[in-house]
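Supplementary notes for students who missed Thursday's class. We covered one full example, reproduced here. Read the sequence, then the structure, then the short commentary at the end.
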Amino acid sequence: MRHNKIRNPGIILELLNKKISSCIAIGNIDEGKSLFNLMRKYFLSKSGYIREVYDRIYSPILYGETRNHYYAGNFLGYIMEEYVNIDEEDLNREINKLIADIDKVTNRKKLFNEKIDNYKLHASIKCLGDHLKKDIGLTPKDRLQCENIIMEHLNDNQEVKKLNESHKVLKTIKTKDEIAEQNLAVAIAMKKFKERYNHTLNDDQNEFLIKYLTSPSNRSFCRWAEKKLDKVVNEIKEKKESIKDDKLQEKLQLTQRKLEVINRENILESDNMVNLLLSFELINTLKLF
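Structure (token representation):
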């Protein structure tokens, strides 16, 4: 199937996300910050046409779920009606600006050569949409393949499952009668968390897991974790002052309060552990601002 991925908003956003994460992981903060600013400018700005197209076409499919092929087919039909109404000139004009800005920050060829999990899905959306809008000449076989890829995704959406699982990975029993079993379950859950997400864990998250699993006592781990959490809260306070986005400031304020409450409670509760691990990721993201 003929497909120009440089013109595909879904693929561009996933590649930027992946590259930004990679830059953070290796400490290349300047490049990561520049790419994050581009992502914010073109995909998060209310006035951006790329964002409008992504929100109308790609995001509903990527995070959509249907009960069966009948509903999936109808849903896909509605999305394709939206696709036909895309203003190609406006979209391509903005994509040209984005690509030019990307060229100033990073190697475009290397960026677009990276592999992403949802490549076939985003490619199928664009190929099918372009066929309906401009009659690019998909064969019946290729058109059926595109439709099947999209509808199978909608009926068995792994992206939604990942989001749901991320909230369940560290869930443990919390009844007072099973405290010992709870502590063991947390330890096992943490090991599973490390096995599942090891490739994305940053240094602070790895240190947290190692400390928890190797500390001689809960008390020693709690003392270490409380100091670590104080540091995270202080960094949020400091960074919050330099951020002008009101909504983001509000979210940071809520996060700060939540972490402060956690620091006064039982740090070993599994839900609190999830929040702590995510707070370490937040600190790395704030470096981009």
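Commentary. Residues 5-162 form one domain. Residues 166-186 have pLDDT under 50 and may be disordered. If anything here is unclear, bring it to office hours.
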